[in-house]
Amino acid sequence: MSATVLAVVLSLVSAVAYAAAAVAQERLAARTAGAAGGLRLLGSAAWWVSVALNACGALLHVVALRYGPLTVVQPLGALTLVAAVPMGARLAGRRVSAVEWRGTALTLAGLGALLVTASGPAPDDMLGGTEALVVAGSAVVLIGALARPGARPGLRHATASGVASGVGSALTQTVTVAATDATGPLLSGQVVGVALLVAAFATGGLLLSQTAYRGGLGAPLAVVTLSNPVVAAVIGLCLLGERLRGGPVGVLAALAGALLASRGVVLLSRAAPGDRPAPPPATPDPQVPRPRRPEHLTRL
């Protein structure tokens, strides 16, 4: 099995784990809105299950980054939304709609084009210490601006979560390449420092996504899904020496695939995988006697 194929398989399983965690987080967030909601989550077994699913998805994602470039692994994160749609529909007790199927088809077609143009050998480049600090500092400034109080916090927090996740993935690849490099020290100061940054960005991305899902799952998850690979691809192409195959034709194919996948993600986001069925109308209990009308009204 080639390195790229292994990275794709690991990314598929990771996306399923992330999707299950996202659906669980959205349903929990809807029930724990408010200042004390975050504290109540700590006592919820379902929230800890979602954390475990996120951790499983993250571990698989880390391994995938060792065998595949960022430009391949990160776009496959769109499969999280593809998997979340049937999961959310199942929990809501409804069927997957035609729009959802169309969004799934467009997303898969776009990802296929990206895989053909972006596939390459296992990564062997990594960020230097100065580059890692510049990337992390720039990301912190951007995340702080997006997470400030104001209007439409859900979409802004979702964008901030995507930025944190994309930067975290780029830094993770640096750690995995350094850790598996037989010629370098496994626990050098640079590796440990970057690993701490990865943990900080991963935690921040998780918390930001949790707050973003309070207004629903569809649109915030779509924003996370789109912003994450964009940030990671920019870092990979600009700083890690990754390239698209096929020259100008490959670039056009990659852009077309990105547009198709983006359109599919937007369609899937409108489906709102976390929607819940409306409660059935209340029916009168035959065991409870109805109140009798006053006698003077009955005569009328």
From TrEMBL:
<feature type="region of interest" description="Disordered">
    <location>
        <begin position="271"/>
        <end position="300"/>
    </location>
</feature>
<feature type="signal peptide">
    <location>
        <begin position="1"/>
        <end position="19"/>
    </location>
</feature>
<feature type="transmembrane region" description="Helical">
    <location>
        <begin position="101"/>
        <end position="120"/>
    </location>
</feature>
<keyword id="KW-0472">Membrane</keyword>
<feature type="transmembrane region" description="Helical">
    <location>
        <begin position="45"/>
        <end position="65"/>
    </location>
</feature>
<keyword id="KW-1133">Transmembrane helix</keyword>
<feature type="transmembrane region" description="Helical">
    <location>
        <begin position="191"/>
        <end position="209"/>
    </location>
</feature>
<feature type="transmembrane region" description="Helical">
    <location>
        <begin position="72"/>
        <end position="89"/>
    </location>
</feature>
<feature type="transmembrane region" description="Helical">
    <location>
        <begin position="248"/>
        <end position="268"/>
    </location>
</feature>
<keyword id="KW-0812">Transmembrane</keyword>
<protein>
    <submittedName>
        <fullName>DMT family transporter</fullName>
    </submittedName>
</protein>
<feature type="transmembrane region" description="Helical">
    <location>
        <begin position="221"/>
        <end position="242"/>
    </location>
</feature>
<feature type="transmembrane region" description="Helical">
    <location>
        <begin position="132"/>
        <end position="151"/>
    </location>
</feature>
<keyword id="KW-0732">Signal</keyword>
<feature type="compositionally biased region" description="Pro residues">
    <location>
        <begin position="276"/>
        <end position="289"/>
    </location>
</feature>
